[in-house]
């Protein structure tokens, strides 16, 4: 079942924290809401769940206007960062909670609790209390509890951010599996972690202070971001100010060849090229600069090279003989690996 925000605005004490959000999550789709802290992601989720009341605009679930429905009538499963399990209830009682509140018959409750625990790999833990579980297991129970009511949509608010890195990637795989097993359930997944968004989501909606900045598939946003904010939030990006020319752009007195896609010669623009697409050595588009920083990252070295007062990052395959600090180096990139974005302050 799909979710639709139709020009949804939410304000607290006159402060608009969600500004005319228009966004559609298709039935069965996983949509990530990605953005920095305070950008309005949780508020958007709470508007769907019924905990934040829009000042204007409507929220639809499967075509039905639910804006005036109380939360418990919306058929939504919600999982938050802090698990929010009842400490005095056993795992099975926690999972049964929503069903009991809905006065579901006993046999049905037992069946659904078993099913939800099975789905989340927690079948063997039914009689434990939350304090007897690890963080990852508690979050699985929270997900089981959300699934037990057979929600039409599943809302997840930074569900992995309380877990350590290793657990997180395991849980990420679990969520992807869950989505394959419940292909009809739409998911709206709030995160500030671009890896989670890129890994899990069919599409990503990028938020920046109360506003939607861009929405597209991970590939679209990565390869052709609409603006510098989106470019820097979805994957690392080099963002440098350039002037558009007939053949491409000029930067630091160097002519760069690239697709200007209709930009007007003479206009200012921001050049975006991903660090892994910048190589060390001669190539079609050359940038000469000074090495300011080198980071070894296992499989790659990241070079920070100062070119005419701007820092350009290059991720190159681990170098046998890396350049030294202060060395002059030549970087290069292919014309098709760069895109021109509207001029503006980069967030690189
Ligand atoms: N209940 C509330 N009362 C007042 N301000 C709030 C409330 N909830 C959130 N805000 C404010 O709304 C803005 C967006 O918050 P939130 O949606 O939680 O952002 P995010 O989830 O992206 O971090 C923040 O500036 C936050 O301080
Ligand atoms: Mg939040």
Automatic annotation (TrEMBL):
It comes from the Bacteria. One of its GO terms (molecular function) is ABC-type quaternary ammonium compound transporting activity. Transmembrane segments: none annotated. It holds the Pfam family ABC_tran. Residues 3-234 form the ABC transporter domain. Its EC number is 7.6.2.9. It is an enzyme of class 7 (translocase). SUPFAM superfamilies: MOP-like (SSF50331), P-loop containing nucleoside triphosphate hydrolases (SSF52540). Keywords: ATP-binding, Nucleotide-binding, Transport. PROSITE patterns: ABC_TRANSPORTER_1, ABC_TRANSPORTER_2. One of its GO terms (cellular component) is ATP-binding cassette (ABC) transporter complex. This is ABC-type quaternary amine transporter.
């Amino acid at each position: 079942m799909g979710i639709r925000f139709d020009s949804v605005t939410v304000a607290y004490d006159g402060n608009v924290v969600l500004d005319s959000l228009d966004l559609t999550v298709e039935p069965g789709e996983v949509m990530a809401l990605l953005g920095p802290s305070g950008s309005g992601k949780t508020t958007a989720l709470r508007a769907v769940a019924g905990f934040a009341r829009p000042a204007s605009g409507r929220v639809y679930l499967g075509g039905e206007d639910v804006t005036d429905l109380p939360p418990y009538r919306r058929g939504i499963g919600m999982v938050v960062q802090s698990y929010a399990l009842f400490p005095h209830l056993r795992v099975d009682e926690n999972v049964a909670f929503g069903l009991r509140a809905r006065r579901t018959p006993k046999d049905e409750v037992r069946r659904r609790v078993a099913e939800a625990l099975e789905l989340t790999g927690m079948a063997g833990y039914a009689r434990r209390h939350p304090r007897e579980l690890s963080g990852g297991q508690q979050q699985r129970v929270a997900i089981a509890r959300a699934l037990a009511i057979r929600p039409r949509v599943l809302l997840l608010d930074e569900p992995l951010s309380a877990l350590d890195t290793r657990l997180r990637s395991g849980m990420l795989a679990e969520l992807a599996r869950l989505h394959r097993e419940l292909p009809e359930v739409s998911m709206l997944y709030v995160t500030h972690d671009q890896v989670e968004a890129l890994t899990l989501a069919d599409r990503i909606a990028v938020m920046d202070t109360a506003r939607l900045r861009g929405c597209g598939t991970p590939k679209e946003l990565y390869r052709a971001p609409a603006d510098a904010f989106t470019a820097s939030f979805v994957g690392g990006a080099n963002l440098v100010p350039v002037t558009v020319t007939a053949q491409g752009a000029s930067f630091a007195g160097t002519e760069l060849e690239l697709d200007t896609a209709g930009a007007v010669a003479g206009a200012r623009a921001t050049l975006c090229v991903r660090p892994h697409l910048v190589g060390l050595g001669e190539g079609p588009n050359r940038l000469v600069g000074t090495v300011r920083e080198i980071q070894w990252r296992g499989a790659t070295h990241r070079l920070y090279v100062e070119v005419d007062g701007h820092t350009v990052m290059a991720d190159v395959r681990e170098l046998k003989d890396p350049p030294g600090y202060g060395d002059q180096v030549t970087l290069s990139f292919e014309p098709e690996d760069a895109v021109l974005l509207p001029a503006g302050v980069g967030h690189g």
